[in-house]
Amino acid sequence: MTINSLTAETREQVDRFLEQKLGTLTLNERLNQAMQHGVLLGGKRIRPYLVMTVADICGADKQDALRASAAIELIHAYSLIHDDLPAMDNDDLRRGQPTCHIAYDEATAILAGDALQTLAFEILTEQAMHQLPAIRQLQLVHVLAKASGAEGMCAGQAIDLQATAKTLTESALEQMHVSKTGALIAAAASMGVLCGSSEAQQWLPQFEKFARYLGLAFQVQDDILDVTGNTEALGKPQGSDTASEKSTYVRLLGIEGAKERLQNLHNKALQSLDDIPYNTDKLEQFSDLLLKRDH
Question: Can you tell me the mean pLDDT for 231-245?
């Protein structure tokens, strides 16, 4: 089994939900097409899968979990559109397709990213959840907003841009990736728990701990794949981080050191599951496949 086959059912459910939602937006056809380009042309749906799996473990209503999953994927998609812009990473290829600003234009790409971001919060708040009290629905919004903003993903991207052509310490590099990549992965686990039963809420810190280690390990694997992968499999230019003089674990620790760090983080993620009194076999399988992927 591969990570793509594992997440296939979630990918189908989330994509169908997003296709239906985007299909209702008819005010500006070009903007809507750019939004669809940014969110529906591939992707493993790692964050939605984590939401759905944790939510299922915690006894959530499937429709509540699906809405949370769609929301977090929209935030991820918006971030990729903006990261690819000339003012940011200036990438031409994403998921084997032209990036949004190449397929359309820079202004449309910015607007598409903005619209996907706001659509995420519209989906979380447009109606009452099936199983959740209003306070829990508000917590979902708070978790996603915090992970996306100045204490999460945006802060990580700012650090990344400022660190170009510089050598960060390992602690600074870890902080960058905990914010840029790890925050949204940790939010996925948190949102899954928040969708669940009242009894499951006490285990929120344990699920978050697992996801924090997983998110950092995911980024270390990305750094390794930038060196060892190929453009066709990655869906973006191989060696793009190296060419852009990005701060990476491979640059700091070397390829073998990065692999050792990856294994250490993977072990810590798996050990964190021992603290959770539910059947977490699916999360163990997910982490194994995610961190052994080749793209």
Answer: 58
Residue 295 lies in a domain: no
Please report whether residue 249 resides in a domain. yes
Amino acid at 50: L
216-243 mean pLDDT? 73
For residues 275 and 222, give the distance between their C-alpha atoms in angstroms, rounded to a whole number. Answer: 27
- Furthest-apart CA atoms within the chain: distance in Å: 52
Contact 59, 197 (CB under 8 A): yes
Radius of gyration in angstroms for the set of CA atoms belonging to the chain, rounded to a whole number = 18
Residues 6+ apart with CB under 8 A from 204: 190, 193, 194
Structure tokens at 58: 């915690």
| CATH number for position 162 | 1.10.600.10
11 close to 45: Cβ distance less than 8 angstroms: yes
CA distance 219 to 250: 11
Task: Show the CA angle centred on residue 161, arms to residues 86 and 190, nearest 5°.
Answer: 105
Task: Give the predicted TM-score (pTM) of the model.
Answer: 0.93
Average pLDDT over residues 115-139: 96
Domain count, the chain: 1
Q: Using the Cα atoms of residue 114, residue 13, residue 37 and residue 48 in order, give the sign of their dihedral.
A: positive
- Amino acid identity of residue 245, one-letter, is E
| DSSP 3-state of 92 | coil
| Domain presence at residue 85 | yes
Tell me, what's the pLDDT at 166?
Answer: 80
Least confident among 45-54, 104-113, 254-263: 254-263
Which range of residues forms the domain containing residue 267? 3-290
Q: Mind listing the pLDDT tens digit for each residue in 103-119?
A: 999 999 999 999 999 99
Return the sign of the alpha-carbon dihedral for residues 42, 114, 244, 254: negative
Is residue 36 domain-resident? yes
